[in-house]
Design brief:
Radius of gyration: 26 Å
Number of helices: 13
Oligomer: single chain
CATH class of the largest domain: Mainly Beta
Shape: elongated
Number of domains: 2
CATH topology of the largest domain: outer membrane lipoprotein receptor (LolB), chain A
Length: 502
């Protein structure tokens, strides 16, 4: 009997020892923090600056034809700063997309504890918005995602979980995998290298501005010491099972004294920052009358046209962000009380020209979409956006009324009383196929995006020449041109610019 009990006890002891040695999220995170230089050093991090980065950005959603593959854009001079202590982030980079080059800088900062967005693009004046008013072509669509997907807060959140790990393949190598919640409604699958003990990647769900909730994978490589802490210097991101971005940094700094400068609100944007905080959702928009019943909604980058009908309004172009749409809706509600936005028309499906379309549908507008543009617009409107939830997602979840999509082919006319808005899809543009031109006969106003920048004095290019030829082919009489970029100008400006082309 004694021998039998000894065998049983030995077996139980072996099982207990095995159970104790089973990795958990807590043990794996603790090992990773130790491998990075020690938990105390990591917990003492206030800011992380990664600099001199180079890489690429894909999924720009700027194709000439819907559905065609796009070459990746090149990212250079990338500097990203995350302020873990105060919940701020900055993305500064140069993007080159087939010759279209911009120096861009998007910042999520704070004033008196309230979040504010700062947008710097090239020589354009700095603009303050709410954070959801920022639009980025950097390694992420918004600096808020850069902060939320930093490995340090993810590791610290995982270090409190007792979830049990398993062995799984990740990025072609066997890793220790554990799935943990990092905040309410948000889970992350972590992967640890069993040899180095470092976190080599994670998987989660990201809400992309145009494609909604998508599976996202982050691969962390090239760990090097930064001020005594091991940090990944190469980050590769996949979203929706397709390449999204990659950046490899040459260096970095922890708790750099000059990091705070990136988050300062310049005097030129101070008043707007206060407006953004007061409004809750804000992006600069002003309304200018350009003809009877026709108005130009001038924003800081991408503009819209507003057409007034007897009982309602129509908007051409809902670009950039939902914050811009929300601001436009608020301004129009004040200026045209009792007149809702019944229609919102899309000129073309490029990412920076449809970013506010969900906001229009949330406001109850019917989105007018040319048949060739339907796939990306339908994905945009019908997808779920839960990380975080946007207005359209919230309204649908609460079974509140929202707008819809209406598909037309070639030409669409809406009229009421003496007012009329005509939409023409024309082909042959070197920018996108097809392009939609909006025309209001009352006032002889034409509106287009990207082909010609009215009022800027810019020389004409092949896209502008083709635009003018299309206007002539449509046999519409234009007195005033308004642009999604630029401003408003007499039709003669375009005629003269095209005539001056060599």
């Amino acid at each position: 009997m004694t021998s039998r009990f000894a065998v049983i006890f030995a077996g139980l002891a072996a099982v207990s020892a095995a159970a104790c040695s089973t990795p958990t999220a807590q043990s794996l995170s603790d090992e990773a923090l130790a491998a990075m230089g020690g938990a105390d050093k990591v917990k003492a991090i206030r800011t992380i600056t990664m600099k001199d980065g180079a890489g690429r950005r894909e999924q720009l959603l700027e194709p000439r034809h819907v559905g065609e593959d796009e070459p990746p854009a090149t990212l250079s001079k990338v500097t990203e700063i995350v302020d873990l202590s105060d919940g701020r982030a900055s993305m500064h980079y140069v993007i080159d997309n087939a010759g279209f080059m911009q120096d861009r800088h998007e910042v999520m900062t704070k004033r008196a504890g309230k979040l504010v967005g700062l947008d710097y693009v090239g020589m354009r004046p700095v603009v303050a918005t709410t954070v959801d008013g920022l639009f980025s072509w950097g390694t992420q669509n918004n600096p808020d995602i850069t902060l939320r997907r930093n490995l340090v807060p993810i590791l610290l959140a995982a270090s409190t979980s007792t979830a049990v790990a398993s062995d799984e393949m990740f990025a072609g190598k066997m890793a220790k995998h554990v799935h943990v919640p990092i905040k309410a409604g948000e889970d992350v699958g972590l992967y640890f290298d069993p040899q180095s003990k470092l976190l080599v990647g994670f998987e989660t769900t990201d809400s992309e501005a145009l494609t909604g909730d998508v599976p996202a994978q982050y691969v962390l490589e090239g760990y090097k010491a930064v001020d005594g802490v091991m940090l990944p210097h190469k980050i590769t991101i996949t979203k929706g099972n397709k390449p999204y971005s990659m950046v490899e940094y040459a260096g970095g700094a922890i708790n750099a004294p000059d990091a705070a400068k990136d988050f300062e609100i310049p005097d030129a944007a101070s008043k707007q920052a206060d407006e953004a905080i007061a409004a809750g959702v804000f992006s600069p928009v002003t309304i200018e009358k350009i003809a009877d019943g026709v108005y130009f909604a001038r924003a800081y980058s991408h503009n819209s046209l507003v057409v007034e009908f007897p009982q309602w309004l129509a908007v051409v172009e809902a670009p950039y962000t939902d914050a811009q749409t929300t601001t436009l809706v608020r301004v129009l509600t004040q200026q045209f009380p009792g007149k809702p936005i019944k229609y919102a028309a899309v000129t073309h499906p490029h990412s920076d020209h449809i970013g506010g379309a969900r906001g229009m549908v949330a406001a109850g507008a019917t989105l007018l979409v040319e048949k060739a543009h339907e796939p990306p617009l339908r994905t945009l409107i019908e997808s779920h956006h839960t990380h975080p939830m946007d207005d359209l997602e919230k309204r649908r979840s609460a079974n509140q009324p929202v707008g819809a999509i209406e598909i037309y082919e070639g030409k669409k006319v809406i009229s009421d009383g003496k007012q009329r808005l005509e939409l023409y899809a024309f082909t042959g543009s070197p920018h996108v196929e097809p392009m939609v031109l909006a025309y209001v006969p009352n006032g002889k106003v034409a509106f287009q995006s990207d082909l010609w920048f009215p009022g800027t004095g810019a020389p004409a290019n092949p896209a502008a020449k083709q635009l003018l030829e299309s206007m002539h082919a449509l046999k519409i009489t234009v007195a005033t041109n308004a642009g999604g970029h630029g401003g408003v100008a007499p039709a003669a400006e375009l005629e003269k610019a095209v005539a001056a082309m060599k």
